[in-house]
Specification:
heterodimer, A: mainly beta, OB fold (Dihydrolipoamide Acetyltransferase, E2P), six-stranded mixed sheet, five-stranded mixed sheet, 3 helices, 46% strand, disordered C terminus, B: alpha+beta, Four Helix Bundle (Hemerythrin (Met), subunit A), Helix Hairpins, Heat Shock Protein 90, 6 domains, seven-stranded mixed sheet
């Protein structure tokens, strides 16, 4: 919100399961093609695995599972959005990466009350765009993956 | 914080720690002028710097302490009281330093109490024994008036004044004199210390202070470099004849050296972790009123500072423990014929990539009986479980959570959090701790810790298509299981086990533990078994493939995955892929948590076979809820078959098994062959023929010391024994074999035609006597059992007629070889055939047996072999007659 033109936020947009999402650009480190994912046994289902991004170990989060969205027909070429939290690197696996959008803060509306709870818990609001809706993702809440129940 | 102040704090902390240690040494060796000079100089330096930085409280304190120490230097005898006082002063200095570090200023208040005490003692020692040699100095005698003396000290020395001036200006008048006063009092120290200081200062110029963070960062970067190098090497391996080959090799070597070098910078002598100990022991000694000798060896042994930090507290705790309840009170020691002064010894040395730290005392040792009763009282194990444990196993319970053997809680230790915390800390760094103790003679703790945590050697394995790293530290050996080799995987219901030398190794599939078993069921029968040891637990991890060992850089797990106890980190391999590092501790915990802990084999104590005969028994149910047992060693295989595959031929149930027809025999008439599901079978093999006992359920395998308590008249039952606290029928396999094969019966009948030969059966284990007697009787022999060689010799003397002696070789007291020699030596029995039975059949043993006159040598469970050997010997008798 402290970005230069005050009332504008830049979002990196991405499509997951047909829905358009926006991530605040200030939180996005990079966008990359995930390669050689190592699955992690006993991990929460949302965690797709670990991968090596230029010598760093990145935890990949399957956004379809995280957001309870069905996979579209045919496994489209997937991409990952790199974000950082508490010194650790994460990769959010999305279907298609979109353009960067500049949207006014005032255009962000609260979540509709009937929004799917899976989405509502990670959404920071909704922007109405021409012909489609953009759901703003709260990165910290997305990363708040609960440990698998069986782990205890 | 002021740069100057920070340097001062770092330096002073170090000096103070040294003073602590030196003072304790000094108390024991009061005539050592060198130690005293050393202390004096250190305190003096602190005092000097305090004055320079304007820290009046610290300065006054150290000054008073220095004055008292000055007395000692002048020849006043050293008293324990005085050293205690100085140590108290140093403690106060430490508190002040801590405050200073936090608030960057000295706290309010004063230290008149200590200063007055120090002054009083200095005055007292002075009057008790006026210093003869050196002329009295003004500010040395009347320390009571110390502060007044400071203020009154006239005309500042020139160079001191020059330094003190800027500070004096900035502060209150009374303090202004302080830095100056030290110039006067300090002269003495300077003169004395100068000679010592010179070589020191040369050393000082060869080392520089580097912040720990800088080193950590360097280490991280080197780790990255190692990974990158591994990747390059991997590429290099795939491209033969590449021009990169030579520079790559060079890079590899340089990287390895760099890694070594950086590791070295992180290395610190273990003595750093010990520094506080002499002081702690001294204080404890005073508090507990026990004289204690504290020895340290190998303080220069170096290890990674990260590891050092982690073992510091456990070591302190263990030494406290030794002092508090390891060592007895002096009176008790005298009564036990030991020197009054107890000894605690701390030693460290390198041993193959690990550091071994040993904490030992010559105290009362661990009271196994008390531990036993406590273990039972706290419900950590049942009475029967405890009963069959060795002393070493029982002693290990002191590491169990919530266990404390001290009968009363003291301020020092015995609060019930103790050795379990120590063990947890040591486990955490991948180390191991063991205890050896002899009641009345002392206790000896041995800790094995890795040199470093950052880079470890790991075994790379494959499981369900994924690769995993297992830290080499935990891996004992690798075994390739083959269905047709001696390393055969056997099953008890769902539990897979492997006979490995003398133990039964529980097997666990990594894929099942990690819940990653894919559709293609991995082939346990032909898998690789990684024999893993964690603490006292040994188990086998079944994996699909084993690749190689690799030096890996341990990277912490992501916060989202850290809760998975099965992994202790992850790493990037040479080919760039990320893999998980399996945590052996996590595995062991999971295993002991989910399965019967009995199935996790305890590492067998070394002398088990000699002490008491522990037998692996297979427990099962057949026909009744009561447990039945059979020695596992007699069982060839455990099978579960589809009841539909059972055929009836000639009125008997058979099943096709490995290309042969195997007869099925029910344990008793109450056992029904199941209609559906799977039918458990115990398979026994003899000379290539197999028979199977039909049972209802296979329950467990237990290690039991066997005493058959009630012999039975029921056919097929040897008798009853108490196993796992339950009365259990031990079945007699010899009864069932003839039921399966008629020719067995014929053979036996043939044997009984002749007059029975008389066998003297010697075995110390009642189990074997009870088991073999019916076997031999069934084969047509008359049997007289004897429980020892002496009893056997007595029986032979007794004019009884025996045709052959069958003796166990491993017996307490006189063994089988000696018995054979005794038989040979007696002219009346010189021609009596002697057959040796042993669980250890080696070429040397056979040769030794031949020398002492054993006619034959048979493996203990080879009944067929024994019968054949008996037949051969008795046939010869018949021929000879």
């Amino acid at each position: 919100m402290n970005e230069a033109p005050e009332n504008i936020i830049e979002y990196v947009t991405a499509t997951v399961g047909g829905q358009l999402f926006g991530l605040p650009i200030s939180r996005v480190q990079d966008v990359f093609v995930p390669d050689r994912l190592t699955r992690v046994p006993l991990a929460p289902p949302e965690i797709a695995g670990l991968l090596n991004l230029r010598g760093r170990i990145v935890t990949a989060i399957d956004m379809r599972r995280r957001l309870d969205l069905d996979a579209p027909a045919g496994d489209a070429s997937r991409m990952a959005v790199g974000v950082e939290s508490k010194g650790e690197s994460y990769g959010l696996l999305i279907d298609v990466i979109g353009e960067v959008m500049k949207l006014p803060v005032s255009g962000c509306e609260d979540n509709p009350i009937n929004l799917d709870p899976g989405l509502a818990r990670v959404s920071a609001g909704v922007h109405r765009l021409d012909g489609k809706l953009l759901v703003v993702l709260d990165v910290d809440r997305v990363l708040d993956v609960a440990p698998a129940a069986e782990a205890a | 914080m002021d740069e100057l102040l920070r340097d001062f704090l770092t330096e002073t902390h170090e000096s103070i720690d040294v003073v602590d240690v030196e003072l304790v040494r000094f108390e024991q060796d009061p005539n050592n002028a060198k130690i005293l000079n050393n202390i004096f100089r250190l305190v003096h330096t602190i005092k000097g710097t305090c004055g320079f930085l304007n820290l009046p409280r610290l300065e006054a304190l150290t000054h008073a302490a220095e004055a008292l120490m000055g007395k000692f230097r002048d020849g006043t005898p050293v008293t324990g009281e005085a050293v205690t006082l100085i140590l108290a002063t140093i403690d106060r200095v430490k508190t002040l330093l801590d405050e200073l570090e936090q608030n960057q200023a000295e706290p309010a208040g004063d230290d008149r109490d200590l200063i007055a005490e120090l002054g009083r003692m200095a005055a007292a020692t002075a009057s008790a024994r006026p210093a003869p040699g050196p002329p009295p100095r003004l500010n040395e005698d009347v320390i009571d008036e110390l502060e007044r003396a400071f203020r009154d000290t006239p005309g500042p020395r020139y160079q001191a004044a020059a330094i003190a001036q800027p500070f004096a200006n900035a502060t209150e008048a009374p303090n202004a004199g302080a830095p100056v006063a030290q110039g006067d009092a300090g002269d003495r120290g300077d003169v004395a210390g100068r000679d010592d200081e010179r070589p020191d200062s040369k050393v000082a110029h060869q080392s520089i202070r580097v912040h720990v963070d800088t080193l950590e960062h360097l280490m991280t970067m080197v780790s990255e470099l190692v990974l990158t190098r591994n990747q390059l090497l991997d590429i290099g391996r795939r491209n033969e004849d590449s021009e990169f080959k030579v520079p790559l090799q060079r890079l590899s070597n340089v990287t390895a050296e760099l890694q070594d070098g950086v590791m070295k910078t992180r290395m610190q002598p273990i003595g750093n972790a010990w520094q506080k100990l002499p002081r702690i022991v001294r204080d404890l000694s005073a508090e507990l009123d026990k004289p204690i000798e504290f020895e340290m060896q190998g303080a220069e042994t170096e290890l990674d500072r990260q590891v050092l930090d982690l073992i510091k507290d456990p070591l302190i705790h263990m030494v406290r423990n030794s002092a508090d309840h390891g060592l007895e009170m002096p009176a008790e020691r005298r009564a036990a014929g030991k020197p009054e002064k107890g000894t605690i010894r701390l030693a460290a040395w390198h041993e193959g990539g690990y550091i071994i730290v040993e904490v030992s005392d010559d105290g009362r040792g661990l009271d196994t009986a008390r531990i036993k009763s406590l273990v039972i009282a706290r419900g950590l194990a049942s009475e029967s479980e405890v009963e069959k444990m060795t002393d070493a196993q029982i002693q290990k319970f002191i590491f169990a959570p919530g266990f404390s053997t001290a009968s009363k809680v003291t301020s020092v230790s015995g609060r019930g959090v103790g050795m379990d915390v120590v063990r947890a800390n040591i486990d955490q760094i991948g180390g191991a701790i063991d205890v050896k103790s002899v009641l009345g003679e002392g206790t000896n703790f041995v800790i094995k810790i890795p040199l470093t945590l950052a880079i470890i050697s790991a075994l790379i394995v494959e499981c369900a298509g994924d690769r995993f790293a297992i830290p080499q530290l935990a891996v004992v050996e690798l075994v390739r299981a083959r269905s047709n080799s001696e390393h055969r995987v056997e099953h008890i219901k769902d539990a897979a086990v492997l006979r490995l030398r003398n133990t039964l190794l529980p097997l666990f599939q990594l894929s099942k533990l990690l819940k990653i078993s894919d559709d293609a069921e991995s082939d346990v029968e032909n898998g690789f078994i990684v024999v893993t040891q964690v603490g006292s637990q040994t188990f086998g991890i079944v994996v699909d493939a084993v690749f190689h060992t690799e030096e890996i850089v341990v990277k912490p797990m992501s916060g989202k995955l850290r809760h998975i106890a099965m992994f202790c980190g992850n790493t990037i391999l040479g080919d760039g892929s990320v893999i998980m590092i399996v945590d052996p501790n996590g595995l062991a915990q999971k295993l002991s948590g989910t399965s019967s802990s009995r199935l996790v084999a305890e590492t067998p104590p070394e002398r088990e076979a000699e002490d008491d005969m522990v037998e692996s028994m297979l427990l099962f149910r057949a026909g009744s809820p009561q447990l039945k047992a059979v020695p596992l060693s007699l069982v060839t295989r455990l099978e579960e078959i589809d009841p539909r595959s059972i055929e009836i031929t000639n009125g008997r149930a058979v099943v096709q098994y490995r290309g042969q027809l195997m007869p099925l025999v029910s344990v008793n008439s109450d056992v029904r062959i199941k209609d559906s599901g799977s039918q458990p079978l115990l398979v026994f093999s003899d000379e290539g023929r197999s028979m199977a006992l039909v049972v209802d359920e296979i329950v467990d395998i237990v290690e039991e010391r066997l005493d058959i308590e009630l012999t039975s008249n029921t056919a097929g039952i040897l008798g009853s024994a108490v196993i796992k606290g339950q009365a259990t029928e031990v079945i007699d396999i010899a009864h069932y074999l003839p039921l399966a094969f008629e020719d067995w019966l014929h053979w036996r009948n043939h044997q009984t035609d002749a007059a029975p030969h008389h066998v003297l059966l010697v075995d110390d284990a009642p189990f074997f006597r009870n088991m073999l007697t019916p076997v031999l009787k069934a084969a047509g022999y008359a049997v007289t059992p004897a429980s020892s060689a002496d009893e056997a010799v007595a029986l032979l003397q007794d004019n009884r007629r025996f045709d052959v002696v069958v003796t166990d070789i491993e017996m307490p007291g006189k063994d089988g070889f000696e018995l054979a020699a005794a038989v040979r030596a007696n002219p009346r029995t010189a021609n009596l055939p002697v057959i040796g039975l042993s669980s250890l059949v080696s070429a040397e043993a056979i040769e030794r047996g031949r020398q002492v006159g054993l006619h034959d040598y048979v493996a203990k469970f080879d009944r067929q072999g024994l019968i054949a050997a008996l037949k051969e010997q008795t046939d010869e008798l018949v021929r000879a007659a």
